[in-house]
Amino acid sequence: MDKEKFVIEYDFKKVSPTLLWGFLSTAPGLEEWFADKVESNEKEFTFYWNKTPQVAHLVSSRVGVFVRFHWIEDDAERAFFEMRITTSELTGATMLSVTDFATPDEMEDLRELWDNEIERLQRRLGVL
After folding, report:
1. Distances from the Cα of 52 to the Cαs of 35, 48, 57, 70, in angstroms?
2. Would you give the distance in Å from CA 4 to the centre of its chain?
């Protein structure tokens, strides 16, 4: 079954984009909210959940703007997950957009997983 791209946007209110960037782009930052443990070696990140590793390749990034990963075990070559920081022109709020791919039957679960993970990050940064 083909994977479909989806985007979810989260409001981080007045959190500094620079502060948020550290939580998205570094192993110690990602360990704070995304995985139990994170190791990085250049462009390869190993994420551990319950001592089970999953490896992702850092496909591209722009400092302070976005980071894009591809899971090594994912057969869908064009699939990735990306976290992008923007500032709302209307409110001045820091926004985080998450782009990911899922099959239709995985979509709801994956969206819920992102909601839970981002809520952890928002709590860590004092947004909630």
Report:
1. 10, 5, 17, 17
2. 17
Question: Per-residue confidence of the chain (128 residues) as pLDDT tens digits?
Answer: 689 999 999 999 999 999 999 999 999 999 999 999 999 998 999 999 999 999 999 999 999 999 999 999 998 888 999 999 999 988 999 999 999 999 999 999 999 999 999 999 999 999 98
Can you tell me the distance from the alpha carbon of 111 to that of 117, in angstroms, rounded to the nearest whole number? 10
3 state SS of 38 = strand
Structure tokens at 73: 């075990």
Q: How far is CA 54 from CA 4, 42, 46, in A?
A: 21, 16, 6
Distance in angstroms (rounded) separating the CA atoms of residues 21 and 16: 9
Output the CA torsion sign for 89, 92, 94, 95. Answer: negative
* Domains delineated in the chain: 4-34+61-124 (3.30.530.20)
